C-alpha cells in the first residue's frame, strides 16, 4: 500500500506488522512494544493480509480525494474523551447517592480499570484483523454472516440510543437555561438540527478539532458545578454506605457502565489513525482522564449536593449557576452526540460502499448520500429521546442492552477467540483465560439484571413523569 498504514502489532517500526502480500510475523525479541501485545501477535502470526487489504474500508489512499487515515494518536484520544465523558459524568454523583460514597467510588474505579483492559483487548483484536472497521466486521470474523448482522444491528441500536440521549440532554439544558422558555419538543428539534449540521464532515480528523472544544466545555461545566454546589449547599448530608433497593442500586451500576461506554466506536477510531499501533496511547489518555474526572466530580458534587443530587448533575447547583454550567456544557452535549452519530453513519456508508470509488470521492452525490444517512439516523434518535423522557431510565436501558456487551462482555469473547487452543499454555495464559471468561459473564449478568432494573424504573417513573412527546418542562424530573 502506498500509505503509511501498517498492520500487525503495536510497533512503531512496523517490524511486528506486515504489508501487502506478506504474512504476519512476530517482532524481534527485544521489541518492548511487541512484548506488550505478544498474545495478539502469536494469534495473528498465521493470518495472511491479502484478504484484509482487499476488504480494508478505505483501501489505497494515495490518490484519494477524501483521506480517512489521517488522525494522530492524541486526536483520537481527544475524540474518545469527547465521546465518552460527556453524558456519563452527568449521572455519577447520583450513583453515590444511590449506593453510598465508598461503594460508589470503588465501583467507578474498578469498572474504569476493567474498561481499560477491555479497550486494550479491542486493540489486540484490531491488530490481528486489520480489516475490522466496526463491531459487525468483528462479528463476521467470529461467527460469520449471522454474527455480522447481530453485532452490526446491536451497534447501530446502541449508537442511535446514545444520540437520542444527547438530544434529551440538549432539551433539558435548554429548559434549564431559558426557564422553560417554550415547548420542550421545540428544543429537541433544535438539538436535532444542530446535530445534523455538525455531523456533515465525513472524516474523524475534522471532527477531532470539535472534540477539543467538547473537552474544554465539559471540564468548565463540571468545575462550575462543583464550585456552585460547594458554595450553595455546604451542609448536605452524605452516607459512606447506604442500604438501597436492588433495582435502584443496580440501575446506578448501569449508569457507571454507561460512563465507560465508548468502546463500541473504538474499531472505527483505530481505523482512521495514521499509525494504528499508537492506539494504546489514545486509550490510556482516555482512561486516565475519564476515571480521574469521574471520581473527583462524583465525590465533590455528592459531598455538597447530598442525597438529593440531580441527574444530570449540572442541575445540582443553584438556578443561576446551573444555567451558566449548562450554557458552557452546550458544546460537549452536542459534539459527543455528533461523534456517535458519525460512527453510526460511517458504519452504514462503509458497509454500502466498501471497496468502491464512492468511499474516496468528494462529489456532490457522495455528500448527498452521507446527508441522507445522518438525517435518517438523527430523526430516529429524536423519536427515542421524546419517547423515553427520564434521563436516568434511558441511560439504564442503554447500558443494560448494549454497554454491558460492548464495553465488557464482547471483549472477553474477543480475547478467548484470539487465543483459542492456547488457554493452558502457561500460568499467565490460564489466569487471562479465567479473567476474560469472567468478563464475558459480567457482561451477560449486567445485561440480564440491568434490563430488569431499568424496566422496573421505567414502569415506575412512567406514572410520575410528564410523559412522552410533551411540551412539559423535563428539567424538573
From TrEMBL:
Residue span of region Disordered: 1-63
Amino acid composition bias (Basic and acidic residues), ranges on this chain: 31-44
Signal peptide: none
Location(s) in or outside the cell: Membrane
Composition bias type Low complexity, residue spans: 12-23
Record GO terms (molecular function): L-amino acid transmembrane transporter activity
Keyword annotations from UniProtKB, A to Z: Membrane, Transmembrane, Transmembrane helix
UniProt GO cellular component terms: membrane
Listed transmembrane segments: 77-99, 105-129, 150-173, 179-200, 207-229, 249-271, 283-304, 324-343, 364-385, 397-418, 430-453
Start and end residues of each Amino acid transporter transmembrane domain: 70-453
InterPro entries assigned: AA_transpt_TM
Membrane topology annotation: Multi-pass membrane protein
NAD keyword on record: no
Family indicated by similarity: Belongs to the amino acid/polyamine transporter 2 family.
Name of the protein this chain belongs to: Amino acid transporter transmembrane domain-containing protein
